[in-house]
Design goal:
Elements lengths: L10 E6 L18 H9 L5 E7 L20 E4 L2 E4 L25 E5 L22 H7 L4 E7 L1 H14 L3 E10 L7 H11 L3 E3 L5
Parallel strand pairs: 1-2, 1-6, 2-5, 6-7, 7-8
Antiparallel strand pairs: 3-4
Helix pairs in contact: 3-4
Bound molecules: pyrazine-2-carboxylic acid and zinc ion.
The site of zinc ion (ZN) has 5 residues, from loops.
Length: 212
């Protein structure tokens, strides 16, 4: 029986970081990033539960190159004992860059998950920070709703999509990745293909949005 407060759904759509800073003109623009908004808007009506993650950093987030006198954007360093890339300032809380892209059909987004709020640690996945110390609560939340399968798309393939997919699989969900709904940073050429291979090898099903 369905309850009013927690409608039971089997499959959820998870939209990763469809924010201004990750599309053309943004601080950490992913090539072709804006092209996936149309894919999201086409998929959203097909799902009873739609979750959107939002990268949401304090202005002094330690993943920002600007916070380190000796680092430039793209440099690699250690943050809290974890490998880290120095990013440009992006998705600073309550700024335009952190807002969802205006053309995204937000009316049918049921749940927003913010991540990266702790200045000391980065958080690519919608489920856990990069050290897997703190949960966002999303996995338990989805299980409580009866979700067994998660369909994932968004930005960026080689960072937040990859981390979210791998965590979702570890949490025991069946995961489908919508390949044409993703774009990557490709800090190193080949990163997108390597990420796709890794997600598939870990158990994700790779599909095109037309096949959903
Ligand atoms: C992301 C780098 C830093 C992403 C977020 O959404 O993939 N990448 N923060
Ligand atoms: Zn970030």
């Amino acid at each position: 029986m369905k309850s009013e407060t927690t409608p039971s759904v089997q499959t959820a759509l998870l939209l990763i970081d469809l924010q201004n800073d990750f599309v053309e003109g943004g601080a950490l623009a992913v090539p072709g990033g804006s092209e996936v908004i149309e894919v999201a808007n086409r998929l959203i009506p097909k799902f009873d539960w739609v979750v959107a993650s939002q990268d949401w950093h304090p202005a002094d987030h330690q993943s920002f190159a600007s916070q380190h006198a000796d680092l430039a954007v793209g440099d690699r360093f250690q943050l809290g004992g974890l490998p880290q890339i120095a990013w440009p300032d992006h998705c600073v809380e309550d700024t335009h860059g952190a807002e969802f892209v205006a053309s995204l059909n937000q009316d049918q987004v049921d749940q927003v998950v913010r991540k990266g709020t702790n200045p000391q640690i980065d958080s690519y996945s919608a489920f856990y920070d990069n050290g897997h110390q703190q949960s966002t609560g999303l996995a338990d939340d989805l299980r409580r709703r009866g979700v067994e399968q998660i369909v994932v798309m968004g930005l960026a393939t080689d960072y937040c999509v990859r981390a979210s997919v791998l965590d979702a699989l570890t949490e025991g969900f069946r995961v489908t990745l919508v390949v044409d709904g993703c774009r990557g940073v490709e800090m190193v050429p080949g990163d997108v293909q390597r990420s796709l291979d890794e997600m598939q090898a870990a158990g994700a099903e790779l599909l095109c949005s037309d096949d959903l």
